[in-house]
């Protein structure tokens, strides 16, 4: 294969990547990896998440990426008529973006979940929430990772 | 062969007032093998994780979580619960192989 062919292939790949990024909802703010953008799109069924209502609590600096505490809360009355149904957590630059999917019910009284996650490197963590009315909200926050935690 | 699912530990208040929102904290020992790691001979160590957690109250599902490989070893999961009546919780952890580990807890009204 000629180097020209190689270059063309890279350009095409880059162009494809950009196409994905430009179709991202504006609420996403900064760009996302193609795999993350695809995972978000799969979660929302292509609907554009709005900003707000979702709060992500993570340490700004994680010394050990193997176990990073994360709390997600969503502003919701959690009544039968108006509640959070699902919250997805994604890690933008992990080998795979999926982290967790939480399934909420009004019985919780408050939309919150806590867990501990692995972060392979410094990156954004993203939360997408689906409300009972079918709307989506999103939040993202950056975590600086000193020692990566993906067993590499 | 799937790694053993360790003893689950669940913490919640033994009793609470109606209307109160309590926190339920759970921990289970498990390696959460990602499938990205290799052993000393360079062979991939197969993925083996707890992939689902379900909390039921009096038989009704109140909270569930699908876990991916990015959840840390010995998964910690905590969530709130609004107390309406006394009853019993059942918590179930399921691994990739479909094996389950269950734990139960009683909730009394204060």
TrEMBL record, chain A:
Keywords: Signal
Pfam families assigned: SoxY (PF13501)
Source organism of the structure: Roseicella aerolata
Domain of life from the UniProt record: Bacteria
Gene: soxY
Domain Ig-like SoxY: 43-150
Xref: InterPro entries: SoxY, SoxY_sf, Sulphur_oxidation_SoxY, TAT_signal
Signal peptide: 1-27
Annotated protein name in UniProt: Thiosulfate oxidation carrier protein SoxY
TrEMBL record, chain B:
Name of the molecule in the record: Thiosulfate oxidation carrier complex protein SoxZ
Cited SUPFAM superfamilies: E set domains
Pfam families: SoxZ
Species per Swiss-Prot/TrEMBL record: Roseicella aerolata
Domain Sulphur oxidation protein SoxZ per the UniProt entry, residue ranges: 11-105
